Prior knowledge:
Blueprint: E1 4-9, E2 28-31, E3 33-37, H1 44-57, E4 61-64, H2 67-83, E5 96-97, H3 99-121, H4 153-165, H5 167-171, E6 179-183, H6 204-213, H7 226-234, H8 238-255, E7 261-266, E8 271-276, E9 282-283, H9 289-303, E10 308-313, H10 321-334, E11 338-343, H11 351-354, E12 358-369, E13 374-381, H12 387-391, E14 405-408, H13 411-431, H14 433-439, E15 449-452, E16 461-462, E17 479-480, H15 481-484, E18 488-492, H16 502-509, E19 513-515, H17 527-537, H18 573-586, H19 613-626, H20 633-648
Parallel strand pairs: 3-11, 3-12, 6-10, 10-11, 14-15, 14-18, 16-17, 18-19
Antiparallel strand pairs: 1-2, 1-4, 4-5, 7-8, 8-9, 12-13
Amino acid sequence: MEETIELWFNKEYTDFDSSEGLNRDNPFELKRLNVIVGANNSGKSRFMRHFAYSASNELQIIYKTPNSILEILNNIEQFFRELDKNIDIGTNITDCQTYHNLESNYQNLINRVREIKNRLENTSKNSLNSYPRDYERNILDQFPRQKLNFPPIDDLEDILESLESNKDKVYALQLHRNKFFYIDTLRSLKNLQFIEDTKISNSPLSARTHEDYKFSKEQIISGEDFFEFLTDSLLGMPEERQKIDDYQVKLSHYFFNNEVITLIPHRKEESLHIKIGEAKQFPISKLGDGLQQIIILTYKAFLTTEPSFFFIEEPEMHLHAGYVKQLMKFLLNETDHYYMVTSHSNYLLDMINEDNRITLYRVDKELVNSEEKQYETVIRRCDGDRTILQTLGVSPSSVFLANCTIWVEGITDRLYFVQYLKKYLEELKADNEEKWEDYSRFIDGYHYAFVEYQGSNLEHWDFEVDSLEAVDSSKNKGLNAILVTSNALVIADADLKKKPRFNELEQQLGDKIAITQGKETENSLPRKFLVKKFFEMCPDNGLAKQGNKKKLAYSDEYEKYFTDSYQISPKGIGKYFDTALNKMRKDGVVLQLEDNKTSFSFSDGNQGTIKSKTNFCQDIVELMQSEPWELTPSATELCESIFQHIKDNNH
């Protein structure tokens, strides 16, 4: 599946069309997980259901043609234009159109190129007379006969191969060919058939949802069919039984602390049972409501192999905050489907920065005519919009949840460490599966949470308070960390060692303080990403006032200017870049400075911290999410300290 599909809606798309919301210049960016938030009665569920109806039938939706496809088309057009400027290959594919037009035009283009190739193969390139006269209207006739400048067959073969290999990207836009499933708030694993009412449906929750929203019964997931589904699978073919085994293993790993899980359809009682680890099996009705919800929200997604789109109302119902995020990780990592969810949970919000497969939209009702009390429903992208917290009712009490905390200097460090921990687990899975199983069960927001102490403010915190009587906020170090957060591990920059309070903090925290090997967290970043950012930032003339936006071009021969010395350097990455630029200037890669010129500088201050630190971080995190990379030794060491701390506080 495409990780991102851009689309927007025709003007007739009910009242969700808005000049202030989704439009041609501001398309709906459909990612693997699409979170729709908003106040009660704002219209988010109505929007999601209407989207499901329209997408399943390709109604009123226009697609943004993937850039990779447009690039291929431009290259093909340029190829034929170079043969003769009057040639028109006739791609008929624009940057936006309905899926049906895109599919048809793309296939027509393939057919045209294939036809040209086949006819050229049957035409003598040395004789004008053998040119097929009966194809006057064919595009082949556009080639200049005088020059006989026919395209090489091998080039046409490459074009065809490129077009064919990218058909999947076009095919991925076919939302209507996906299966569609809708999960309403009416859901339960409990057997409701025993109720003594002859009029009751065998699936009353599903029947109610069908009556209310007109989804077909096959599209509705309520949990009521899981007993029969599980029974049929366990009595079915070997691959069906294996799929159930795989599902139980994943449930165990993500939600049951790696205890063995067995789901059992108890025929005598006509009810679902569960066995957890060495405990006796028991009816599913005695399992916590949250874990029952987990099964309802995951079983169909995991066991369905065909491309599908799941629409879920309020997945956070009955779930602990940490398990909301764990549920989303399960859906994203263990399945290949699209998801759209409505939610009131603020615990999904920070996942936006952690995973580029997730997008966040906000639904609002806005007054457009106060006299007539007319409202319109506006859908907006709202990543990073802090006002959404008020809408969701977030209060400071939300932070009293995690079993331990990881204290980092600021937001950039937090974003780096989120990616570090993910990569550490990936590398650990390949090298030490037992340790990976132990560490990968920990949930951000439940087993641990990050705290940002904002640089030098760390000196104001006291990590040693034995009782309430010992609290004294009048002291310089009077902020009592233990009273506002739990079980802290402090990660600090190496320059903290020069500060007066370092010895006191080290005495208070013991092995619960980890110091970076280099000046700061940026010194533990992979060198390949640093080199890439250097050339993205450095002007080709190396001047502070460059006069143009042209950047220095990368070459393999420049790698010698970038060693691993930065990982243990007391100076920041900005200074590391400045040093590399100076060496390049000495070697003539960049012109020498004239007397009245000032060198471009990467660093911000004497300590060599990189300029525009937040933007720099965002670019690096994006690279971490899209390109292969490995942890540096210093980053690995910090990850080991973090996971050991989490484990110590989550027995």
